[in-house]
């Protein structure tokens, strides 16, 4: 029998990983009274090669997330884009906005009004409206990006006034060194914020996406109301060169 090539092995691993994630998502969805189809699974592709990304797409992944504009621009022409939507999920500097507007279907990591205005202006100039999420800085760590929880409602109103963007929900990243239990409390708090903003029914705002949960904590994020999880290492294995 022919020995499996390393490439075959990597592809089998990705396929097995995705199967497992889907099973977990189905369980967490049903535990929280929802359906599997209600939860979107994003494969986070930072540092991952286009070959591996295309493998994930052939295994049924239809949404990918990249952190860095430069890396995305280098890779995206090699990615099977008919099979997926792409979102930007990493901090975006204003001076990079013009390079990315129109090239991703959503920018999840909008963390200031200023960058939102730049996205809006660039979108209008290209005759499009860009879907965005507002990133909430989950525990108001000064070193992290995002709107503070306390300012989030006010910021949602401000974002609703910016032309050329469509606010579709919230994304958040918990602090790095917290455990799953602590994160679950964060997720609960963010879900409350999300509901509060939904309830205001702000004009030009369609709060429908709550993007939270990564490889280590997506199960509890779904239990607390997430409907879009962002999983990287759980799909592709540990990242080597970050
Ligand atoms: C890297 C990253 C992820 C995925 O992290 P994993 O722990 O590998 O699943 C999700 N969201 C953001 C914003 C990231 O930068």
Strand order of the largest sheet: 7-6-5-4-3-2-1-8
Order of helices and strands: HEHEHEHEHEHEHEHEH
What portion of the residues fall into strands of 2 or more residues?
A: 15-25%
The kinds of small molecule bound in this structure are: pyridoxal-5'-phosphate
Intertermini distance = 37 Å
Largest sheet: 8 strands, parallel
- CA radius of gyration: 18 Å
Describe this structure in words.
The mean pLDDT is 93. The chain has 242 residues and is of the alpha/beta class. It is built from 9 helices and 8 strands. The relative contact order is 0.15. It starts with 5 loop residues before the first helix and ends in a 6-residue tail after the last helix. The chain has an 8-stranded parallel β-sheet. The longest helix is centred in the N-terminal third of the chain and has 26 residues. Helices cover 40% and strands 18% of the residues. Bound molecules: pyridoxal-5'-phosphate.
């Amino acid at each position: 029998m022919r020995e499996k090539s390393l490439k075959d092995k990597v592809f089998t691993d990705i396929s097995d990983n995705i199967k497992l994630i889907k099973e977990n998502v189905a369980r967490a969805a049903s535990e929280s009274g929802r359906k599997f189809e209600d939860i979107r699974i994003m494969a986070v592709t930072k540092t991952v090669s286009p070959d591996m990304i295309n493998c994930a797409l052939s295994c049924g992944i239809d949404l990918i997330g990249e952190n860095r504009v430069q890396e995305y621009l280098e890779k995206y022409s090699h990615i099977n884009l008919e099979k997926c939507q792409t979102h930007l999920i990493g901090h975006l500097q204003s001076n990079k906005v013009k390079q990315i507007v129109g090239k991703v279907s959503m920018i999840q990591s909008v963390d200031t009004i200023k960058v939102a205005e730049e996205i809006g202006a660039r979108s209008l100039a290209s005759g499009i409206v860009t879907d965005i999420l507002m990133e909430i800085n989950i525990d108001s760590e000064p070193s992290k990006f995002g709107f503070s929880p306390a300012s989030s409602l006010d910021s949602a109103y401000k974002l609703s006034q910016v032309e050329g963007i469509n606010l579709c929900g919230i994304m958040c990243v918990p602090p790095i060194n917290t455990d799953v239990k602590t994160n679950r409390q964060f997720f609960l708090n963010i879900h409350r914020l999300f509901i509060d903003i939904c309830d205001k029914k702000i004009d030009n705002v369609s709060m429908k996406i709550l993007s939270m949960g990564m490889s280590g904590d997506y199960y509890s994020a779904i239990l607390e109301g997430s409907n879009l999880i962002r999983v990287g290492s759980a799909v592709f294995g540990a990242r080597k060169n970050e």
